[in-house]
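Example record

One chain of 298 residues, shown exactly as stored in the release files.
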Amino acid sequence: MASNQLIAAETGHTPALRPANAAVTPPPASSNAAAVASPGGKAWRWAWQAGRRSAILVAFFALWEIAPRIGLVEPTFLPPLSQVLASGVQLAASGQLFEHLGASLARSLTGFGISLLAAVPLGLAIGWYKGAADTLNPLIELLRNTAALALLPVFILLLGIGESSKIALVVYSCSWPLLLNTIAGVRNVDPLLVKSARTMGVTPLQLFRKVILPAAVPTIFVGIRLAGAVSVLVLVAAEMIGAKAGLGYLVIYSQFNFQIPQMYFGILAITAVGLVFNGVLLRLERHFSAWKRGGADR
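Predicted structure tokens for this chain:
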């Protein structure tokens, strides 16, 4: 009441009085917030974000289609995207596309799987046991700095020009991102987590299974995704040198025979394989790291 009298004295106006027991009415919710909260608003927001992210790709493919047709580039060396896709349809109709795709996937997945089964357990052991790290670190540093493609002649010499040399090259290439990221994941676990678990009286095996391994999973999956990309890239390079089937062979064979649209479609197929591979691994990472995401949400 005193404050109202003071305001009236200073301004010459008497403010409206509100009873002491009157309920305070909250301001109405914004219509925009309600729209966002509704299912339709979420769908609209998702569509807007997807469109914004894909705009650069649409512009890129549109430029690819238009530039050869208006003479910005020579159509002989960079055919329009529609011609490239048409050549892909022809490859699929003849069955050649699936033959080359199946050969590349078989080699890539086999090499990736073998390296995953070998490198991750070894990385866990090296990261967990200091003695193993001190013993193996000089050899690891020597081998990981040796380019994989530089060893391709060695693999061909020892294993022949067949499937074994290509799979061995993929295994070698994928092992290093898997091994190094696994070691880093184990070593970079928060020391407070380890100390807290030990004060609770857990055994070393329980500490490893319940604390170290779950905390290292996000870093391990970084290595898995890198290894997935490497398995495709290195394999394609190996197939260009010595193979009779595969996406890399398709690209180099098309170049030698000046089938340029087919060559570009082979490159697009390799890109698609890499994107699908990365997408699958990303979903697996989100599944196995759900505990971390849930903790962040809280």
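Notes: The domain at 94-297 is CATH 1.10.3720.10 (MetI-like fold).
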